[in-house]
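ASSEMBLY PREDICTION REQUEST
Request ID: AP-0331
Submitted by: J.K., bench scientist
Number of chains: two
Total residues: 1259
Priority: normal
Notes: Please return the full assembly, not individual chains.
Input sequences:
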Amino acid sequence: MTSKTLDNSNPTVHATLSQAHAEKPVSQSALLANVWKTSNDDPQEQDSDMEWVKSAVSQEETGKPLAFIGNTEREDIDELEVFDLLRSITDPEHPLTLEQLAVVSPSQIHVSNKQGGERILIEFTPTIPHCSMATLIGLTLRVRLLRSLPPKYKVDIRIKEGMHQSENAVNKQLNDKERVQAALENAHLLGVVEGCLSSADNRGNAGGGVLVA
Amino acid sequence: MDVERVVRTHISSNDSVDEVPQDLLEAVRNGQVGLLEIVRALGDYLTSTEDEVRVKGITLLSNVLDKAPAARINRQGTQVLTSFYCDKLEDHECVPSTLKGLVVLTKLPTFGAGEASQVFRSLAGNFKSKSHVQSTRHIVFLLVDALLAKHLSAMKTLGDEFVSGYIKLAEGEKDPRNLILAFGIGRVILIEFDPYKHLDDMFDIIFCYFPITFRPPPNDPYNITPKDLQEALRGAMSATPRFAPMAMPLFLEKLPASLGESKKDVLRGLTACLPVFGGRAVQGYASDLWDALRTEIFYSPDAEIEKEALLTLKTLIATLYPDTPETKAADLALEIIKECQAELKEPEKSKAKPATKVLMTCVHASSLIGSYALSQVLPQLFRMYHEDSEIPKRGPILSAIADLVKSVREVYTAEGTTRSHETERTIEKYRDELLSLMSSGIDSRAQDCRLPGLQGAEHLVNIPGFLGAEEVTYLVSKIDGVLTTREPEALQNEALKTLSAISALTTRPIEEHTLPLLFDQLPGEAPALSDEKSRYYIRQVLESLATLCVQPGLFEALHLRLVRQFAGLCEGSTSTDNENMDVEEDAIRKECQVAFAYSLLHAIRTTLQRKIALKHHDIAKHYEHLVPRLYSIFIEGARTDRSIANDPRLMAEGAAVVMIMTQTLASNQQASHATTLFEALRNSDLIRLAGKHGIAEAHAGIGPLKEDASVNEQNLVILITADAAGLRPESLLCDLNAVLQSLLQWAIHKATSQVQVISVCHLMASLINKRAQDLEPFLSSARRDLWSLCEATQPLVFRRALTMWIWIGRALLVRNHASGLPMIIQVFDLFARDNEVASLAGASLSILSDSHGDRILSKENFAIVKTLYKQRLFSSLLPLMIEGSKTRQGSAQTPYLLALGSTIAIIPQGLIISHLAELLPLIMRGLALPNAEIRYNMLRMLSSILEVEGTAETGTLLRSQAKSLADVLVVTATDLREESSSPRTRIAALACLSILPDTIRYDVLHTVKTKVLKELARAIDDPKRAVRREAVVCRSKWFTFGGAGT
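STATUS: Completed
Returned structure:
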């Protein structure tokens, strides 16, 4: 493990304060459903002791209370959600997540949900400017988003400006569909990418990364 | 008896080798025939030139010996037989049977030391391990094990002869079953014989297996795990300090070379051996060992390996520096600490964390090295914090300090430790600095300082005997600052954890400082609908209160304050301050107010539940202050239409508090309370329940059952139900027949809402369950009346009667009462009626699985619950459901599917599995029903079926259906129609679909992979975030299913 020289053998580790998803309900029905929450921890939380009354009240023939109108509001994909998809990907070189190494952060993600022109821009920061893993990290981000975002989004993945010595070349490679496709036909490369992705669904929960051979 | 004839017949017959002629055995047992007679009779056969005959002869003897009573074999017989068997060991073919005989002989009381030596010598001289199968070798190990256990001194007299003999027997053994024994024997030899002459050989036959890479075959009948083997081997390796010079180089060679599990095994081996080898022997290798351990600690991506390496390091330090006055911190310890200090100069880098862990390990390992390490590192960190560091480094510095304090705390609070702050005073001289750093961390504006500040404070508080009262109060005031500002969850939780730890030690600073501050944070009115932030904060404050006030000294302050505020909200809501307010706006404001009031009651209930979980006994004493007060608030509210207290949801929460309180009353208190309760109900005189809080004149004649009661008064039945549900059966002394009869009539004909009906059903179910033996008059009339109402056509009456019917059935079922099951089966008669009635009947069976019913009919509520009632119930119902849906077509099937879907959640899994072939098609059909709830239930059961490791049969069944399952699940997961789907259903479908790749072979499903992935592209675009989340997990699973490929 140590015999192989790493590009960056002692990178800075950043604190990962867990961020509750900033729910921003706008519709009245969503707000009304929220007033009954009793815990901040779990967005799915249901007070099971109360369910019988709520279900009985909802069966009432007349005069349903407001909270039973039903919350059908669409929750759009936003920056935090995209970040959540990426944060727990393991770095190819360290058993640390991209969030811990501050390679990705919510502020470097931009989402536009304009109907017909849905776009997402990801800027990522390699830990050092000569990082040879930058393309690999970018490719991993690309694969993750290909698999987990609706196809209607056009996704751009770039290195944050000025953060890498060959950023143009890397950017070009990452946003060229055919080159991405070709890279993924390389079984070894795909294996490495899968390794980095194997921890992606931790989504900031179970701390630390997973062994990457 | 003619022994010779019997033997001759046996040998020449075609009987199998292991059979023993019964008459012979009988004769031996009752003493007619001696064993030696059999030997004599066997005579020529034992020396026959035919292998088969010899084997048959000796086996017969061994089998008879095995079954003969020990008393029949005297000392002389034992000697003769032992000699005989020892000679026979030379006969290769007969060895297995001979060994079997010897095992029996060694167990005899007449088997002495002389025989033991003789047996061992013969074994060592004649037995060639390599030419025998595993089972034969196994007997040899058992034999040696028995000899060592019973005749240790005889074996010791053999001395080196024994050791060298055993080495020959054990050499080259490969079978795990034998090795387990061999390692145990090895350990005994090393400890008892101290075989320094054969040390090399002993080392070889033990260490050649290290590290163990054994993987048991699947379904291994012998149940030997790698862990068993490793532990046995470790026992042998660590049996003698003499191994050190040979073992240490081996360890150093194996450690970097091994991977994964073997590496952990090497580390564990070291941890076991080091203390035995001792400091002097280890000294020379210590520096190399540290080099190897450092690699694991600083670079291993596997957290478990890191943990084991730290444990080894701890043992190494403890071995090198034992707790004696002459020990000095020298050489290696200094080097290790210096290295860590160097890494900590860059506290924000990734190596700082493992460096801190190494230092923590030093503290754990030895008082001397630990305090030396702290005396070096803490001042350095303090200096860095104050002087030369940029703000971003402060968080990591504090975090390192907090971790070091944590290690001190862990050492002093470990179970059975003799180390304590009083005796060591390791961090005494850093007291002020630690306190001020932690509090400045807590005060800091940078979030990454506040968390370690809080953690450090928590550790300081938890070091027994460290902080004084004033210091604790000081910390509390700092932490309060975090708790009362709008901080992220993680900080709040940490602050709360620290304060809870403090409250367990002393409640005073919490009561005097923290609680008033928190109470002040609660607004007098509910925040406006759009004010999500305030609501978030209120939840945080209430959660803090519900956590802290669990302490016996603090609960009173909580319920008094929150109930007062609750009362204020209810009173405030009775007047309309703005006549012009728009109707909808008013309704929304009211909804917010109700929800806020609800959250106050909920905090009380949460605290109570936590107290019960902690088995606190101070709950009942709050009864007088809490319960009558709640009654008075709700009764007062019922007088006016405007009061939010009339909201059934609020009332149900109040009722939940009342139920818990009633449960905690003693039997005699309950009995008198029960009398008051039922009298108040019968006489519509509820105000009696409000005790001194009630104003009797103003509220006379209020009760839910009153002839002209308003809806609000009627709703009060919710409180009565909860109160009565908490009573013990023996406290229910009054005659309940009349009460039940009036409740039944009221619920069917008078009740004005579904909530009231259900609540009365709960009440009746609880009472019937507890006193069924006295209620036969009511039950028989109720069965008659209700069923005739079920035949009625008036839909409302029918629905209510059916609901009550099933609730009563359930109450009886739970206690295994004879009429329970027939009542439920009778419901199936309704399936033949018209569609609407039939469907309603099927869906109403969900009452059987209703979770609130579990709470009402629970042990906490003193209900009579028999454990196996579900098994009994569904062994009858399941065939009915299966049969019913099989024989019917189209919509006539629906009620059966509904019945299955409503109850499937509580059907014992074993029953489901045994009927799986018939149920699977029904479950799939049920998934097509336009009913979100039913689909959800089916999906949950399907997931649990897929998750259990079933029999080969169920495996085949699931495989054959896997493709259609995947299809149905994809459809369910992407169904957005509001009437038939809910986010919960879609999440359950996705979760179920995620299990398929783990349980079904790829070749079965590879044809649907592309389709599933394509369809899931819609699921990851679901309108709900929670569904998308599950869909992403599911889709990743399917992408990697059967090898990657985009």
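REVIEWER COMMENTS: Chain B touches chain A through 79 residues (CB under 8 Å).
SIGN-OFF: pending second reviewer
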